[in-house]
């Protein structure tokens, strides 16, 4: 319990404390107000965007022809340089033709004999016709003469076919290029014994100009594109869909532009992909069969696309894409958006934003929903930091 004397002793101390408190309260009105954090924003503007897909692929020869002998024999000559360009019909190999030339001569002699027999049979048939009219021979003798004439004519046809076959076999002793293109390595050399229609080819000719590029696209991506087209978000652009460009294995761009030729009608069960085939000019033979490339295939056009820089899009705890939007009074709000694909360094937003809205792309660490910010264009904010 405090005595009166003790209370009198504490009174000066209490007055001093009140005076200090009064001084502190008087200083608050003069303190500088807190400033709103500065953020960089971009204003979303609808724009026409041509959509492309970057797909992996491999090159393939436009035409491939395997050279195989159609007659057997000893190989006498190889008439081409490995790796060179050859023309259709150009001689590639020469098989020993001696036996086939002899067979052709024999077939020609058989034809001559058959023709002589046919001439004799026709003359006999003509005589029997007059003899039958004068009743010198019987009807049976006449019929036999006519049958012999027809048999002789048939023998002539058989002999002509045999001669033609012998000529074809003689022609086959000289193997020619079935198509124009670049020929690869030869599997045989002079002196090799070749068999007729053997299983393994002895050389391969590939046409490289133009050249195919086969790319694969996921069936899920194809379905998503079809749904966007059906919903009216995208429109088919025939000119864009036809054009295809390439990026080579070393990252360089291929100068020639190709055209889409074929979309496979079935999905690969193992990979779940669809094959797209494009045709490219290849005048300098820069593309060779089997090369890995990345193809940029035109798909459709978004007439009023909303693109947001990737720096302005983040993910919440549920994995949803979100952006921070500066609204009226420069107040920040968080917005869940739907993104479909990346175009260069920007997300294509299909839902959750409208044209004219401002999205924060710089200073995100200082902004959160519900606070007031000082918004400046993103580029100006970067310049101000550099000058400061």
Mean pLDDT: 84
**CATH homologous superfamily of the largest domain, by name?**
Efflux pump adaptor protein, beta barrel domain
Q: What CATH architecture of the largest domain do you see?
A: Beta Barrel
Low-confidence stretches: 1-33, 382-388
Q: Estimate what percentage of residues fall within beta strands.
A: 35-45%
The count of β-strands is 20
The major beta sheet can be summarized as:
6 strands, antiparallel, barrel
Q: What structural category characterises the helix and strand content?
A: alpha+beta
> How many domains is the backbone divided into?
4
- The CA-CA distance between the termini, in Å, is 64 Å
Might you state the CATH topology name of the largest domain?
Elongation Factor Tu (Ef-tu), domain 3
* Strand order in the sheet with the most strands: 2-9-13-12-11-14
Q: What is the CATH class designation of the largest domain? A: Mainly Beta
Level of helix content? 25-40%
Shape: elongated
The helix-strand sequence is HEEEEEHHEEEEHEHEEEEEEEEEEH
Structural commentary:
This protein has 6 helices and 20 strands. It has 4 domains: 38-47 and 305-387, Beta Barrel (conserved putative lor/sdh protein from methanococcus maripaludis s2 fold); 51-62 and 215-303, Efflux pump adaptor protein, beta barrel domain (Elongation Factor Tu (Ef-tu), domain 3, Beta Barrel); 73-95 and 173-200, RNA polymerase II/Efflux pump adaptor protein, barrel-sandwich hybrid domain (OB fold (Dihydrolipoamide Acetyltransferase, E2P)); 97-172, Helix hairpin bin (Helix Hairpins, Orthogonal Bundle), CATH 1.10.287.470. Helix 2 runs antiparallel to helix 3. The strands form 2 sheets. A 6-stranded antiparallel β-barrel has the order 2-9-13-12-11-14. Strands 6-5-3-8 form a 4-stranded antiparallel sheet. With 388 residues, the protein is α+β, with helices and mostly antiparallel strands. Strand 16 (321-326) and strand 17 form a beta hairpin.
